[in-house]
Specification:
The chain is built from 9 helices and 7 strands; from the N terminus they run βαααβαββββααβααα. The protein has 265 residues and is α+β, with helices and mostly antiparallel strands. A hairpin with a 5-residue loop joins strand 3 and strand 4. It is elongated and about 75 Å long.
Length: 265
């Protein structure tokens, strides 16, 4: 009898070495900020060599603000980094490894798209201080991001109009609390078999990634179709080739000459 699969299945693991490396630099940035706040700002605030108190305080505040730049930069750059990804497995797929692989393949079956749309994924990222943060998303919400310079993320949860409407309905204090909680909308999952082989279920994340890519391509095609209009719509023909300006008729030129001649008289 085969071993039963866990309902919360690990399908991607970036590895402890990579995660520790990212955590180390995040901690170093925080250490630099703390050192600036404790050892640099107070002496400037109480600097007796600066007779102007306003300038003295301005210098201390400026140094404190500049000290936050490395921490905020590191937090922004490494925010999408994903340590682990978990997949919520239905009961019928937990009975055996064979059933699990069949479930993973069914994610890319068009006939099963609606049934598997609400499959939950859990992304484990790192906060500003390198503690773990879990973000849950539904499979149909995820979109693939094309490669772009200076962008680390390759998967996102789009901020739809419904999301914006819910945000507007919330109070300002609740929205501030959500910002403090460091919400995640973009993720970076590195490609490679070495990141899925260590989970014990290689191939499952590849099926999930293929599903995300497929639904992203369909969404892009639907957006283009909405912009260009429905098929069969009446469109004005586009003008091709250079525009030729026709000379006015001879009678118009003669009438214009006559009027000009009349003014001269």
């Amino acid at each position: 009898m085969s071993k039963k699969v866990a309902s919360r299945l690990l399908i991607y693991d970036a590895g402890d070495t990579r995660t520790t490396w990212v955590s180390f630099w995040k901690a170093m940035a925080l250490l630099q900020f703390g050192t600036t706040l404790v050892f640099a700002v107070p002496p400037l605030w109480q600097n007796e060599n600066q007779p102007d108190p306003n300038l003295r305080k301005a210098q201390a505040i400026l140094v404190g603000v500049l000290g936050t730049i490395p921490t905020l930069t590191m937090a922004y750059v490494t925010a999408p980094f994903v340590h682990q990804v978990f997949l919520q497995i239905p009961e019928h797929a937990r009975r055996s490894r064979h059933n699990l692989l069949n479930f993973a393949r069914s994610l890319n079956n068009p006939a099963n798209a609606a049934a598997s749309a609400n499959t939950k994924l859990e992304f484990v990222t790192l906060r500003i201080f390198p503690f773990r943060k879990n973000t849950t998303a539904l499979l149909h919400e995820l979109r693939a991001l094309p490669p772009m310079k200076l962008r680390l993320a390759n998967i996102e949860i789009p901020k739809t109009e419904e999301w914006a409407k819910r945000q507007r309905e919330k109070g300002i204090w609740r929205r501030m609390l959500e910002v403090v909680a460091e919400p995640r909308f973009k993720f970076f999952v590195k490609e490679g078999k070495m990141f899925t082989a260590k989970t014990g279920v290689p191939g499952v994340w590849e099926e999930v990634a293929m599903r995300i890519k497929g639904q992203t391509n369909r969404a892009v095609k639907e957006e283009k179709a909405a912009v260009t209009g429905p098929r069969g719509a009446i469109r004005r023909p586009a003008v091709k080739g250079p525009v030729v300006l026709q000379r006015p008729s001879k009678t118009v030129e003669e009438a214009r000459v006559k009027r000009q001649t009349a003014r001269q008289r």
